[in-house]
Amino acid sequence: MIKPLPDIVQFLLLQEGLTETLNTLPRIFGDNQIPAKYNNGDEVVDVVIGDGPILLVSLRGGDIGFDSVTGLAQLQFECIAEKTSEAWAVYYALFDAIQDAKSGNILIAEINQFGQKSNYPETNWPVVITFGSALIREGVTS
User: Fold this and answer.
1) With 80 as the cut, is the pLDDT of residue 90 above it?
2) What's the whole-model pTM score?
3) Which residue has the higher pLDDT, 54 or 45?
């Protein structure tokens, strides 16, 4: 079965330029909302924006191939930070990491629209929102 969201999140967690921009805590969440807590690798901790930027990835739909082992996932990315400049820095790092990328189950990925600045509704934190797509194939490992 094709699992686009976990595949994209795993791919993004392996992108050094992106994880460096997200500071030492690569907080990339595959959901459309900020979780209250997350596992930072050592323990379960509260999500605090002062600990560094956050990247939210959500699936907006897409197409499943006739062979049922490929799919074109439509994605939304929200680059959230304490300062507007930090949110834009995450967007630029995301763009560099994903544009024309290929790795593992990701046959090709790209950003489809330029980022747009807004504010995250619950917190009023700056956010840069963009959209992308990824062609994913089940069972590819390299």
Assistant:
1) yes
2) 0.85
3) 54
pLDDT score of 8 more than 70 = yes
What does the pLDDT read at residue 104?
Answer: 83
Rg (alpha carbons) of the chain, rounded to whole number: 15
Cβ neighbors of 95 (< 8 A, separation 6 or more) are: 111, 115, 130
Task: Spell out the residues 6+ positions from residue 37 whose beta carbon is closer than 8 angstroms to its own.
Answer: 44, 45, 46, 47
Alpha-carbon distance of 25 to 41, in angstroms, equals 9
Mind listing the domains of the chain with CATH numbers? 4-33+46-137 (3.30.2000.10)
